[in-house]
From TrEMBL:
Keywords: ATP-binding, Cell membrane, Copper, Copper transport, Ion transport, Membrane, Metal-binding, Nucleotide-binding, Translocase, Transmembrane, Transmembrane helix, Transport. Signal peptide: none annotated. Its main location: membrane. This is ATPase P. The keyword NADP does not apply. The lineage of its organism: Bacteria, Bacillati, Actinomycetota, Actinomycetes, Kitasatosporales. Pfam families: E1-E2_ATPase, Hemerythrin, Hydrolase. It is a multi-pass membrane protein. PROSITE patterns: ATPASE_E1_E2 (PS00154). CDD domains: Hr-like. PANTHER family: CADMIUM/ZINC-TRANSPORTING ATPASE HMA2-RELATED (PTHR48085), CADMIUM_ZINC-TRANSPORTING ATPASE HMA4-RELATED (PTHR48085:SF5). It comes from Kitasatospora griseola (Streptomyces griseolosporeus). Belongs to the cation transport ATPase (P-type) (TC 3.A.3) family. Type IB subfamily.
């Protein structure tokens, strides 16, 4: 019946061979072979259906997980309402183990969420009051309240479900290739059977040839491989719109990337603090955060976040106001006026001119901190490169990508710097949305092209590419709608995961289809020469079908070269040392500050600054490096391929210890007189600047190579 239905739709597949073989076995009295063919067809279709169910179980889990109702609080009463009735601004209650029904913001108290369904990451996350919570996350802690910021239709989970329902709806080119195989394989099989009958006069040989010809499940091994790849991508937090997108990604040779929000985090971060003589970085940052804590400016948010990360106590301020074009202004407890924001740089002291020059070289924004209109410090902020961006670029090249370029609307200077850091081949800066579309189309003329972006201005370029990839965790919904693939977790290395999965799935799909057909062709030759009777041929064909479908299911498993995976204990270590890196940023600032003090004409406070650095090194930094050497590196050795993979980092530890010891020795020489001798200045300054450079490079290498392994 299914063959008749296919013929009515104008599709003559290899099932037609099986029907002819059945007719031939009836005509020649080979009833055992006919029974085996019937068993082969039905069991093959069942096996294929089971394989596809196995391949799509992760996608179907998303649909099953979709919430249907929400508990809405009105006054002191709570009622369960259909999800469609939830409106923006409603107060919702999410109990333990319940799914967040719509996008919203946490109210009442912090929430502990399991976002694995959305991101593929098993780690639980803590959201503070005011933080956003995405629909689909599961409450892993106590009950909390949520203020809805979106309706069901426009929430994160609903969008992912819509994409998921479309997954596999369109047939990938490799699957159409399987149909083309069937188009020529059907006449070849009929011709072989006809020749065998014509040359030998033995109808049984012709029937035997038809029996071993490829049935339907063989060529369905190709879509099973593609759908298996989609399923594996879903586990990584990558939603693929359809099989064609995955297959095309596997053939991609050019990748175009936006900068902000794709290669960078998309949010400014305080990376350096310059201070006036007599002030400390912690004091300046705390003062800036105290004034900026009520400001809605994006730089103010970065400053307050930096102070919170360091656990600083903010000084009391009052009468906080915003002055357009200047920044935030507040009154301190002693009556002084503190300002954080822009200022005239025409008449700056030497330390401030150096900070302004440093910001220009780094392409950073400067938030000047002033007291009674006198600058006391400067917070330098920039959008940092994602830790996983360089690793992503390397893995994309391993997956077969030969050209990577940045297409961004930002200025050329920071764009080129980031491109050099992550290892891109070309940069197109100051591009309008129309320019981006033109650039993508030009790249498509040369090779299959992927475009990756997160903003509304990226949506046209995503639609213009062969495959559009959207950073969907924090990106604009317009880019997600225009994309073929959406990364639901805020990690660009998921793109490399998807590329490697796509390449492997496509290879397995072609391998399964061609391999099965070659095996069937060999069996047809044996049958034509009378070496394989119909019954034995039917059994052999059944084994071939099982083999190729099982081979197609290999796409569900990780292959070689998909990147290192670490166990839960090692991941906990990685997170611990990554957090310690953030805590040690003030040590780097103190080292740089002490070196600057030695450079200043008046270096009377230089000895105190060096003593402070020595204290920080001996009590905080060196114990951290020792712990990394003896705890983290051995734990990473197995995942990374042996102890040699951490050898260069161990060598950096040795240099850090050497420079720290040299600084301690300088202080010991200064103790008898209570002052640094003039002949010590040059070497001590070189030690401090050298230590600062080594630490910056060492931290960057660890964050890129080791800390990006964490799923957090």
């Amino acid at each position: 019946m299914w063959v008749v239905q296919a013929l009515r739709r104008g599709r003559a597949g290899v099932d037609l061979i099986a029907v002819l073989a059945l007719a031939g076995t009836l005509a020649t009295g080979e009833y055992l072979a006919g029974a085996l063919i019937a068993l082969m067809l039905t069991s093959g279709r069942w096996l294929d259906a089971a394989a596809e169910r196995r391949a799509t179980r992760d996608l179907r889990a998303l649909l099953r997980h979709a919430p249907r109702t929400a508990r809405r609080r009105t006054g002191d009463t709570t009622e369960t309402v259909p999800l469609a009735d939830v409106r923006i601004g409603d107060r919702l209650v999410v109990g333990p183990g319940e799914t967040v029904p719509v996008d919203g913001r946490i109210t009442g108290h912090r929430a502990v969420l399991d976002e694995s369904v959305l991101t593929g990451e098993s780690a639980q996350v803590t959201r503070e009051i005011g933080d956003p919570a995405r629909s689909g996350a599961v409450n892993a802690g106590s009950a909390f309240e949520l203020r809805a910021t979106a309706t069901e239709e426009h929430s994160t989970y609903a969008e992912i479900v819509r994409l998921t329902q479309q997954a596999g709806a369109e047939r990938a080119p490799v699957i159409r290739l399987a149909d083309r195989y069937a188009a020529w394989f059907l006449p070849v099989a009929l011709a072989a059977a006809g020749l065998a009958w014509l040359l030998t006069g033995d109808a049984i040989r012709a029937v035997a040839v038809l029996v071993v010809a490829t049935p339907c499940p063989l060529l369905l091994a190709a879509p099973v491989a593609i759908v298996s790849g989609i399923s594996r991508a879903a586990r990584k937090g990558v939603v693929v719109r359809d099989g064609a997108a995955l297959e095309t990604l596997g053939r991609a040779r050019t990748v175009c990337l936006d900068k902000t929000g794709t290669l960078t985090s998309g949010r400014p971060r305080a990376f350096d603090i310059a201070t006036a003589p007599g002030r400390t970085p912690a004091e300046v940052l705390a003062l800036a955060a105290a004034v900026d804590q009520y400001s809605p400016h994006v730089l103010a948010e970065a400053i307050t976040a930096a102070a919170a990360e360091r656990g600083l106590t903010l000084p009391p301020v009052h009468d906080v106001t915003e002055q357009p074009g200047r920044g935030a202004v507040a009154t301190l407890a002693d009556g002084a006026t503190a300002t954080v924001g822009q200022r005239d740089t025409a008449d700056l002291p030497a330390w401030a001119r150096a900070a302004d020059n440093r910001a220009a070289l780094d392409g950073a924004a400067v938030a000047w901190v002033s007291v009674d209109d006198r600058p006391v410090g400067a917070v330098l902020l920039r959008d940092p490169v994602r830790h996983d961006a360089p690793r992503t670029v390397r893995r994309l090249r391993e997956a077969g990508v030969t050209r990577l370029l940045m297409i961004t609307g930002d200025r050329p200077e920071p764009a080129r710097e980031i491109a050099a850091v992550v290892g891109l081949d070309d940069v197109r800066a100051q591009q309008t949305p129309a320019d981006k579309v033109a650039a993508v189309r030009a790249e498509r003329e040369r090779a299959v092209t992927v475009m990756v972006g997160d903003g509304v201005n990226d949506a046209p370029a995503l639609a213009a590419a062969d495959v559009g990839v959207a950073m969907g965790a924090r990106g604009a919904s317009a880019s997600s709608e225009a994309a073929d693939i959406v990364l639901t977790t805020d990690r660009v290395d998921r793109l490399a995961d998807a590329a490697q999965i796509a390449t492997r799935s496509r290879r397995i799909a072609v391998q399964s289809a061609l391999g099965g057909m070659l095996l069937s062709a060999a069996a047809m030759v044996l049958a034509a020469f009378g070496l394989l009777p119909p019954a034995a041929g039917a059994l052999l064909q059944q084994l071939i079908d099982v083999a190729v479908i099982l081979n197609a299911l290999r796409a569900l498993r990780p292959g070689r070269g998909v990147g290192p995976e670490i166990d839960a204990d090692t991941e906990e270590l990685v997170r611990r040392f990554s957090a310690e890196h953030d805590d040690l940023r003030d040590v780097l600032e103190a080292v740089r500050e002490a070196a600057d003090r030695l450079t200043a004409p008046d270096s009377t406070d230089a000895l105190a600054a060096v003593r402070h650095v020595d204290h920080l090194l001996t009590t905080r930094l060196l114990p951290h490096e020792e712990a990394e050497e003896h705890e983290l590196y051995p734990a990473l050795a197995d995942a990374l391929g042996g102890p040699e993979t951490t050898a260069t980092m161990s060598r950096a530890h040795t240099e850090i210890h050497r420079l720290a010891h040299r600084i301690t020795t300088h202080l010991a020489h200064a103790e008898p007189t209570g002052a640094l001798a003039p002949e010590q200045h040059d070497d001590l300054r070189a030690c401090l600047y050298g230590l600062h450079s080594v630490l910056q490079l060492h931290f960057a290498q660890e964050e890129e190579n080791y800390f990006s392994l964490s799923a957090a």
